[in-house]
Amino acid sequence: MTAPDITTRVPENPRRGGPRRRGERSRLASVGLHLTLLGAALIAVFPPFWLLVTSFKPKSDTFTLSLLSGFTLDNYDHVVNDTEFLTWFGNSVLIVLVTTVIGVLISATTGYALSRFRFPGMRPLMWTLLITQMFPMAVLIVPLYNLMSRYGLLNQPVALVVTYLTIAVPFCAWMMKGFFDTIPVSIDESGRVDGLSPFGTFWRLVMPLARPGLAVTGFYTFVTAWAEVAYATAFMTGEENLTLAGGLQTFVNQHTQDWHLMTAAAVLIAVPATLVFGYAQRHLQSGLTAGATKS
Question: What does the record say about its membrane topology (predicted)?
Fold first, then answer.
């Protein structure tokens, strides 16, 4: 008695005329996928593209659908020369640089300690780093404002530096902990054998290997301080004290609606962030992947 034929029939591949391999998409599915990706890309690109186009239009053409029919650079000239934009830029650069340097240092040392050492209170500290990410920023504005007012830190750059560190450090420390977990402990042991102190091992051997994670940490801290609006407008008043995020709101408010100027200022603000992203992007994928999968 012969055994029944149980061979599974493989569907024909219309492109080659032969059987289609498992997991291979049909031509119709490929076309649908590419059209979906193209539509998503257009939706993502259109807002910044239209922002750029509007920044070159005169005020009378701000809400028209024409593409650069009245091309002008007056918006940029007015923003740079007739407003406090350069002052806002200097304030933002100072706050961002200090926040990024301190944030990367604290996050790296905290992540390294959580990865390499076992000490009392380690688990509560790790849970604290996670729990602090659960609170929305709007909930913390009032208590932080009261603290800054009590210690006389309002309209002082240090107020925003401390505030941004409370936002960036918990997430970055947890991410750096996951990244340090991917670096073999044998490297630390070889450093101690060679006579290095724990900090020397961290600084001279481990930190150079952690460049992708440091790039992600630095970029996240930079974006947190560069693009934040709520705290910048609550803690800083007076045009000479504003950052770029706060200064941007002076163009469109209850008294003025200079959208053409706001778009020009927004483009200028986006340029440094784009340059930083372009510099750090080669490390972002590996750093984020390591920090996400090894925690």
Answer: Multi-pass membrane protein
Query: What is the pLDDT tens value at each position of the chain, 295 positions in all?
Result: 455 554 555 455 545 555 556 656 678 888 888 999 999 999 999 988 998 998 998 888 888 887 777 788 899 999 999 899 999 999 999 999 999 999 999 999 999 988 888 888 888 888 887 787 777 777 888 888 999 999 988 899 999 999 999 888 988 888 888 889 888 888 888 888 888 888 888 888 888 888 888 888 888 899 888 978 889 888 988 888 899 988 888 888 877 788 889 999 999 998 888 888 887 776 665 545 554 444 4
